[in-house]
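Service request form, structural biology core

Requester: graduate student, group of Dr. S.
Request type: structure prediction, single chain
Budget code: on file
Notes: please return the result as structure tokens.

Sequence provided:
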Amino acid sequence: MDDWIDYYDSTHTIYASKRHRDLHFQVIARDIIGYISAPDAVVLDYSCGEALSAAKVADACSMLILAEPAPGVRGRLIARYAPNTKIRVRSPEELRRMPEASIDLVVMNSVAQYMTQAELDVALAVIRRLLKPTGRLVLGDILRPGVGMGRDVLALLRFAAADGFLKDALVGLMATALSDYRQLRTKIGLQRYGETEMLTKLKKAGFSAVRASKNIGHNPWRMTFVARPALTGST
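Core staff response, request fulfilled:
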């Protein structure tokens, strides 16, 4: 995952325009809020990226913890949200020192594809320890085997056409084709999981999980799973 962390910590061209970037984070925030069950919930956004709409999520819960591995991004998060008393920024290492069973909702969206299977297992173990017995993990934007970049492009173009940045998206796609992102995706690849494979992985990590009816974000060809800590002896 280190190469991907370095990429997202750089000045990259993953978003076609400022409007695309802002709408992306607005949609993610809206979908996360939909999983917050109570205003006193403690929420963890694991590997959150720039999280430009985090204040909206914080308004819907008692505390939002933004965990981010890229040090440059983490520094910007700290500066951006320093005035907001409901937002805390942490590194993944700091999560390991947090109290057990202290989180109501963990969201890990569009992250698993950049991790090795072993890295995801480690993250799931940390999350399992942090979640309250009644808590939930929402694992979103999981790439499926056999669903290639063409569907990602189509999903982006549909999103762009509906929200007024289609020209920017077309230019952005050409830029991405020549970018470090495309080169990394070709060289390293992205981790993909079938539905049964991911459910099995979550079960082995101590969760009881189901596939959600709708993916987080704008791409309907990717999957979201909702998992709860399994009762002892039921895994």
